[in-house]
Amino acid sequence: MTKKKFVSFCIFVVIISAVIFYYNSEKIISYFQNKEWELADSVGSVSLSTNYIKAEGTFSKLILVGNNYIKGYSNEAKEEFDIFASFQDVTCDSNGDYMVIAEKNGTVVYLICGNEKVWENTIPGNIYSVYVNKNGYVAVTYKQSGYKSLVKIISPTGIELFTSYLASTYALDVAITNDNKTLAIAEVDTEGIHVTSAIKIIDINNLDNSNVKRFDLDENSLIVNIEYTEKNELLILTDSSVKIIKNDEIVEMLKYSYPSTMNITIENCKNVVALEKEEKGLFDVKYKLCIYSYGNQLDKKEYELYDLPKQIKAMNNIIVVAMQNELLVINTNGKLVKKCDISRDLKSLVIFDNTNMIGLIFRDKIEFIKI
Prior knowledge:
Helix content is 8%, strand content 56%. It is built from 1 helix and 33 strands. The protein has a 5-stranded mixed sheet with strand order 1-30-29-28-27, with no helix packed on it. A hairpin with a 2-residue loop joins strand 7 (90-95) and strand 8 (98-103). The longest helix has 31 residues, at 3-33.
């Protein structure tokens, strides 16, 4: 190779490298800035049958629900139980080592704890959602003639404790405190000129109507989700803000709006996690994962993403972000702690409640990733 050709070749390599860096600069810089992260390891996989409907993570299990089964897998990707049950569609929820499962628009509800079915109850109406707290107290929301919604509370042993009847409002969401003493119902009234939302707080141990507290929200404010924190303070996610009930008062913590806030969740009960988009120009769009911890003041941490994520799940102290070709595990301080490559056909992901494992659900298998 002549000296002239060699110089031309070097210039060509420099130009190509510069172009690659220009289009991937954020990813490359992020890679070196987050030096504390480690590769997440796979511990195994299981085949996924065609009649799979839903998956949830409990403290120690990944539970699969199919048309004719409820199966539980350990964090070593080993099947530990297989319970026969018949479903067309399901609604389910998990917390701690409990999972509650019901046929959507059906009448039968199951509670799973560890490797066992604890109880199976029949509800006198059409079920449309279920909830369980970490101690196994279940709330079943259903429809029945004469009422728009009913919420039935069932103990961890399957005893029906009481039913709340909503004649003129729809129950959007429910939550039970960690001490099992209080039920919160988010309800909406669509019959007036304006849509109105409210929170009803019920003392489970004293059902006298005089003990029921009601908190009205602003007109046209729609409740999306409610969750109790570890301190038994109620978080409220609406379509435009995050609020908290403290000392019998509703306090606004955060306002947001679409499309700058593309996604927001309060489901990990420790932080508000939001995906925010910043447009600086036609081809200059940035995405940030914003983590708000709540105390006396709202503390914000950020993690910059190099592209639009496919999925985001948050639980306890971690946020799992599925990008196009890789999985990012970010802590609540906004630091990348684990990552691994994934294929493009990821359908969904499940976090074990102990936050040590993730189940990646693909078209034909589930991959178990240790984090």
